[in-house]
Amino acid sequence: MHRARVATDATVRENQIAKQILDAALRVHTALGRRLLESVYEVILAHELRKAGLSVARQEPISISYDGLKFDEGFRADLLVGNCVIVELKSVQALNSVHAKQVLTQLRLANRRLGLLISFGEEHLKNGIKRIANGLPEAVEEVSL
């Protein structure tokens, strides 16, 4: 019973952080508009999240572990927020399946459960948001943003 409570607390924390990320992303999109390079959005979104009191790591390395070895030729998460939510930023008109696969790969390699894929290239930011779960309970995976 205690184990289920810990999982629930972690899930609640991840979802609270995700909401703060999306609120900040909306503020950034409203202020800057679309069609800038994703590096601009990364810097400004990280700033907004830190102002909200969240810990944010930019360009966080994600290595590959295999056969008892660690390969540093892995990936970099654009943002790792609260040491639990991976955020991948894009500045494209439409997200596609390879973008989601990139986030899911990062989640699995980093042993994290929740990722947000956000494209600032959309006219309406809500159309450029995808929530990606890695092993979260079913009820949580069905939550729409």
Q: What ranges have pLDDT less than 50 throughout 5 or more consecutive residues?
A: 138-145
On the 0 to 100 scale, the average pLDDT is 89
Helix content: 40-55%
Question: Numbering strands along the chain, what is their spatial order in the largest sheet?
Answer: 1-2-3-4-5
Strand runs, count: 5
Structural class: alpha+beta
Apparent shape: globular
Give a quick account of the main beta sheet: strands, pairing sense, barrel closure.
Answer: 5 strands, mixed
Description:
- This protein is α+β, with helices and mostly antiparallel strands and 145 residues long.
- It has one domain (2-141).
- Helix content is 43%, strand content 28%.
- Strands 1-2-3-4-5 form a five-stranded mixed β-sheet, sandwiched between helices.
- A hairpin with a 3-residue loop joins strand 2 (69-81) and strand 3.
- Helix 1 (2-32) packs across helix 2.
- The model is unreliable at 138-145 (pLDDT under 50).
Which tags fit this structure?
single chain; 145 residues; alpha+beta; 5-stranded mixed beta sheet; 4 helices
